[in-house]
Amino acid sequence: MKEIQQIPGYYYDPEKGKYFKIQPSSSATSSYSIQDVKRRKTRDENIVAEVAAIASQKGRIRKSVLLGRPLSGAFLAREMYQRQNRGGLPTAEILASGYVPNIKLELECPPLFAISPRRNADSSTINVYTTHNSDLRHVQLDTPTGSEEREIGYRFSSGRPSTSISINNDARQMALTWLSGTPSSSIAIISMLDYAQGIANEQPPHIMILGPGYQRGSGQVDVFASTSTHPSSPLLFAFGTSHGILAMKRSDSELSWLTPKQTSQQASDILAMEFCPDNPFVLLSGDRKGNLEIWDHRVPSSELAADTVFHPSSIIHIKQLDSYRTVVAGLKSSLVQYDLRYRKTRFSAKNSSFSTTKASRGSTQPVLQYPEYQNSARIHIGFDVDIESGIIAAAQEYDEFHPAIQLFSLSGGHVLKSSSLQSWMSSILPHDQPVRCLKFANDMANQPKSLWASAQWRDGAGLEQFRWATCQDCDEDSRYEPSWCAHILPLS
Q: pTM of the entire structure?
């Protein structure tokens, strides 16, 4: 291949076969601004590196003979979540290709949200809770038709940015957190039973406003994350803060610090948390320094020490798959899967010394990577995993090279194609606004889980539901035209 000569101030587009003058970043009409050319060069370098990697690995990687054996191969396939249908196609590929837009909730801005599951198997009514700037809205919806049954809203404080929303379905309690700036108010606990009655009686819900307090100093303590606990746990919720982890007791709703006090050099903002599904006493937390820490809260806080996995960047999402496997999403486009049973530390050539500093400590070797994930610096961005279907839904930094929402195979790490989802993104999403929140929800009877997305549209904002549909459920063209399937529900 002939080497292309580089001309200063010009960019050679290999697709068009000619040079283009690089325009200033302030030029809105040019497709070859300084920032755009940087993205194009990064893409070109990644393509060259990928082709070189494939060429170097050709002939070296072969399918294991063990997978072809009836007994041991079946056990190995089950261990790696390779569930297939009768036709031989992986379930994840089939479900991803069948998502179509169904319900659209119009709001003033893209919120954080949570969806309470259906109360019984035959019900088609769900409860959608949205929060933005310390307010709460509760909407009851009929999912097949998208018709709104009732809606109520309530505001807690002076419009501070919301950081998380969690539901404890067993206790029928909800937790909201926001950046309050004061130690006395940054957490709201809402009784969902009272809230449902409040909708019928037009009365506000029973709400308890709490804060981190002054035990960790009189300065500002920010609350960034929350998670609900296992039904058999003595705790109700756990909260990630800038000074450690707070826990709320189930018995008396009292807040206490779960982790020991740290020095200002040790402290790091906890941005993500998840309880182990098989053990109500084990909690995983991810912080801004890239530490994935495993806590056992049966140990007194004064003696508690975390088992740590080192991620190469700030951790913004954690999803525990089982007792050992964990999916971690972070900045610098890092999306990986760790197995806590098999941990090795890898060091780069530049940082080969065994140091505990982030710059040179090395990172834990993952068992699986998702190389197409793109998020260099966004913390408030959507992410969720459907373990049953084997699909990861990850919001990304949206531009002409990367979609706003990317679906990945949980077991394979490769991208899953969804033509309807791609069509929806290209038709209504602006490039400079990432998808704020993503959730899989079991919201329809006898159907796979739907995918809900919170985003800023070109002509508004709100939530969009994508349900799985076959050609018999809707017109074939609706897979490529979102407005054919959407039901508009204004909530202003």
A: 0.78
